[in-house]
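Researcher: Last one for today. Full complex below.
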Amino acid sequence: MNNYKTTVGIEVHAELKTKTKMFSNSANHYGKMANTCTNVIDLGYPGTLPTVNEEAIHLGLRAALVLNCKINKHMHFDRKNYFYPDNPKNYQITQNRTPIGVDGYVLIDTENGKKKIRIHDIHIEEDTCKSIHSDKSSLLDFNRAGVPLVEIVTEADMNSAEEAVKYLEKLRELLLYADVSDCKIEEGSMRCDCNVSVSKTDKLNTKVEVKNIGSISNVGVAIKYEEERQIALYEKNETFKEQTRRFDDKTMSTILMRVKETGNDYRYFPEPDIPFIDLTDEYIEETRKNLPMSAEERRNIYLDAGISKVNVEKIIQNRTVSDYLNKFIGKINLVIASNLLLGDVAAYLNKYEMKLEDTKLTDEKFETVVKYLDSGKINSKIFKDIIEDIMENEESIDEILENHNIKEMGEDELIEIINNVLENNTKSVEDYKNGNERAIKFLMGQIMKETKGNANPVLVTTKLEEMLNK
Amino acid sequence: MDKLSREEVLHVAHLARINLEEDEIEKFRVQLKKLMDDIDKIKDVKDYDEEMLISPVDHNAPLREDSEGKMLEYKTVMKNVPHSTGNFVEVPVMLNE
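Model: Here's the assembly. Have a good evening.
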């Protein structure tokens, strides 16, 4: 069974983050009441004319650039004809002959190092309406009709479910960090179709397209299911025709769908209502120059700042945290800042189901508190004590510390406490002098207990060492 | 060949989602062939080395600013909808998603 080689190609549809639709100025809003964000263009009324959304072209170009594509500077749209209720004008406006980007690639990490997944093309098109099916009828919501999309088509370069999942994770990260799409698979703003085939030789066998996969991990499940299903058929000397199947997440299996039009049946021809669009070299370069900082660049900055690999990945997983942290690059200790954001701040936000921007944590307050932690003016215990005030009150960090009666202890007071601790723990002092380094930690703990956490730990360490070595 | 095959006619009928009676299939085998022969005459036209014409105008597509305009009232949309359930337009079941 193991001598079969799997081949996978993937098509991803990603909705573009625009305010309005691809060819009309009705709103591109997810989650509104069904059929309340439409106009005559989206509904395909006769005599209406499409107008091209400038921002959709801009985001399509960004996507093509981050996928390392060659740009089609002289492009047009085509009509893809098919007769189906999800598209009442009976054609979808897409780019067949001149996709905005061609011949790109995405690099994924595999056990054998980096692997290049080639991008055949990326084209801009309009979404169809959303349909919900039951046994008796289908229900349509035209809010999604005309939402701008990019469709990204790979070559058949992936050879396992794991590689497909890695490709999709990388693609999602690229699009998310280029501000092209919010890539929410659960909301349908990123959708994946996979073409899977298995073969014992280098000659590709019949491929099966799997649609309707609702999560990146289920793409892996669907591919594994198809591998096994197809191998079992070949082992029984059975053959099958090219087909489209849908993934069923209840049974975690794929189910045969009826055959749909393909290739020539779509009768593509240039969209006569939209003349050519020319992208100038200046415009392309300007767009490239203004691309938001990629996840890869962010990773490098965070790793250089000393943040652990695990935390770097946690930050990258959460774009809001990454953007917030980036405001402080070069200003504060990013390790402390990231520990706060991933630790106490995240816990606070989870507890109260809030977002960072809903709190009273200003940039200034965050910068101050990280600096205080860095210098040892306050410690993490104090931070835990005052976090609710930081998040909920308008007061500055100094005012909050004062309200909590937290003052940095004066040097004289500290020396007195250290003296007392040393006098009461003569055995530990002796141990330290005999070379037991651990004894100092115990003494530190006693001093911090006596100071109730109000002393600057850096100062305590310096003073304690000084006094022990006298 | 002066006729299309029966399969070709049925395929075109399927794309247009229409059912044909037996006598209609025969009629269209002849008529569609004639139509295709006429279209084939385009091939005789001299092939100019010019850019493909996609639109009757020779300027580029004007691009629209990404700002929201007036939308249709929900009630207006539903006026032309024969069947609905909740806020949705209801159509015969689509098996072929």
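Chain A has three domains: 5-281, 293-403, 411-468. Chain A is about 40% helix and 20% strand.
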